[in-house]
Design goal:
Elements lengths: L2 H10 L18 E4 L2 E3 L3 E4 L12 E7 L16 H7 L7 E5 L9 H14 L2 E11 L1 H12 L6 E5 L18 E6 L8 H12 L4 E6 L7 H5 L2 H9 L6
Parallel strand pairs: 4-5, 4-6, 6-7, 7-8, 8-9
Antiparallel strand pairs: 1-2, 3-5
Length: 243
């Protein structure tokens, strides 16, 4: 089976997810998206400095979707990449950061991601106009999929080395969401054509989309992306009420 066909098939699959593990000191509900889907995502949670002392303030929310290599029942795996890695190294984010984990042998379920986001917004003081979604590789696919299913929720998305299969025909659903797409031009795992196609389609629609193609990067283009302060500056400038 060709890589392109495999990725297309993956993008069409909605996996049933059910995990029993819990985050230390955190208890989680089963996130019910509808009568047929029950998803339980354990997650890492980071609250910003000042959250406990300023009871009236609402904060941005960043939801980070990991790649296939971090699936499992050990939340420590999530600290290998992305915001969880930066937080573990001491970086402070002026936002609530949630990093859920997918069970082994599964992929991201857009309905489960939405249900988890709703749960976080009920439990914590979240600014509904500043809810952001980002992910890498499998999580990049999940970012696109979830945004297309629930475009009204997100102030901005950052899909990294991901893509969309036949659902590119639904791109109009996200034409008003600011997006910054990243991909390595020499990626041997996910064809950069996935990201280029979405950029081309959204650009023609007048979407506020940015596209960074690293000419020498392979699959891991997320490290340099998340290490770039300009990426976070751009993200926190985006507000749902502005589009």
């Amino acid at each position: 089976m060709s890589r392109l066909l495999l990725r297309t098939l993956l993008s069409l699959v909605f996996a049933y997810q059910s995990v029993q593990a819990e985050t230390p000191a955190q208890s989680h509900d089963d996130y019910t998206a509808d009568v047929t889907i029950k998803v339980h995502y354990p997650y890492l949670l980071s609250l910003p400095e000042g959250y406990a002392t300023d009871a009236g303030k609402k904060w941005p929310l960043i939801l980070f979707l990991h790649g296939a290599g971090e699936r499992g029942d050990n939340l420590e795996l999530l600290k290998k990449h992305g915001p969880p890695k930066l937080i573990a190294a001491g970086q402070k984010f002026p936002a609530v950061v949630v990093s859920p984990q997918v069970a082994p042998h599964n992929i991201w379920n857009p309905h489960g991601v939405k249900a988890l986001t709703d749960e976080i917004m009920r439990k914590y003081r979240i600014d509904a106009d500043r809810v952001y979604l980002t992910g890498i590789s499998m999580g990049g696919f999940g970012t696109w999929e979830t945004a297309m299913e629930y475009p009204e929720l997100w102030a901005a998305i950052i899909p990294i080395c991901g893509g969309v299969g036949v659902r590119f025909v639904m791109a109009e659903r996200i034409k008003s969401i600011p997006e910054w797409i990243f991909h390595g031009a020499k990626d041997p795992v996910v064809d950069p054509a996935f990201s280029k196609r979405m950029n081309d389609i959204l650009t023609k629609m007048g979407t506020p989309v940015k596209f960074t193609l690293y000419p020498e990067a392979q699959h891991d283009c997320w490290t340099v992306t998340y290490d770039n302060p300009e990426v976070w500056k751009w993200l926190f400038e985006q507000k749902r009420s502005a589009h």
